Amino acid sequence: MPETFVTIIGTVAACCTSFGLAPQAFRVWRTKETEQLSLGAFGLMLTGTILWLCYGIFRFDAVLIAANIIPLFFVSYVFIEKARALNKSTNEL
Fold it and tell me: Is the N end or the C end of the chain the one with fewer CB atoms within 10 Å?
């Protein structure tokens, strides 16, 4: 398989996974609604993203690093907003 084709597939895949959570993050930012989101799911996604980022850093792989820095912001934002909402609802009881 030509290396250019493999690079294109990898680049498209990295863009899809990097920006896959952008719509959810922007919706949370716009509406401030997180009730239907799972803190556990986003916690797991955050952990996985951090681990993939570390793996990329350890391997000195710029593509892995870039492909995980971008979603780190989206996943972190949603996770923090969900945790804040849970904390706020717990404090209101």
Answer: C
